[in-house]
């Protein structure tokens, strides 16, 4: 265990996700069979110690980690738009990862690798401190009922861990369509001394919606239901 792990001894008893069914469509299964061995790995099957990102991608490049890629609708487009980065997507839902590989195949991207499992375990046990250029958490499960707020991914301990894995100048980008969760995200990040809000001068500290982040069907649904989208962009100092 390295010294940074000792500073961030985050051990969860409650996780932020639920186990879902793994039934896949024929197309998803084919994508899984074609690509998983090369592009994917289960977090629980990673060798002990830091993930060798450069060897996996076959190059040295800035590393972006997206936590919770869902069905890959946004992720595939983001990866295609940034061929100069090594893009890691971590997700627990197997059909979602398969669908992401289908989308990536269609867009002919080569700079994507996928990890199946708990992002906190990945960060804590397999990501070196100061090695990530950006962490993205877009529309995580809001766990809207108050008694379930403890399940939310963005908590003081998880943000401290994420921050420790960012390089100085690295970025944590959050987005949610649940106002209560947005406020919690802002409160947690503002309390982290090593993070600086890049948009502190904007109203409420919210970041303007980046043009490069694709609008998903879930985001459109949020608009239809009258929920405002909030982005937060923090930089490690």
Automatic annotation (TrEMBL):
Enzyme Commission number(s) of this protein: 2.1.1.33
Pfam families assigned to the protein according to its UniProt record, in alphabetical order: Methyltransf_4
Keyword tRNA processing annotated: yes
Keyword rRNA processing: no
Keywords associated with the record: Methyltransferase, S-adenosyl-L-methionine, Transferase, tRNA processing
Entry coiled-coil feature ranges: none
Residue numbers binding S-adenosyl-L-methionine: 66, 91, 118, 141
Family annotation (CDD domains): AdoMet_MTases (cd02440)
Reactions that this protein is recorded to catalyse: guanosine(46) in tRNA + S-adenosyl-L-methionine = N(7)-methylguanosine(46) in tRNA + S-adenosyl-L-homocysteine
Gene Ontology CC, one term: tRNA methyltransferase complex
Binding sites annotated in the UniProt record for substrate: 145, 177, 216-219
Pathway assigned in UniProt: tRNA modification; N(7)-methylguanine-tRNA biosynthesis
Recorded GO MF terms: tRNA (guanine(46)-N7)-methyltransferase activity
NCBIfam families (alphabetical): tRNA (guanosine(46)-N7)-methyltransferase TrmB
HAMAP family to which the protein is assigned, alphabetical: tRNA_methyltr_TrmB
Similarity comment: family membership: Belongs to the class I-like SAM-binding methyltransferase superfamily. TrmB family.
Summary of the function given for this chain in its UniProt record: Catalyzes the formation of N(7)-methylguanine at position 46 (m7G46) in tRNA.
Protein name in the entry: tRNA (guanine-N(7)-)-methyltransferase
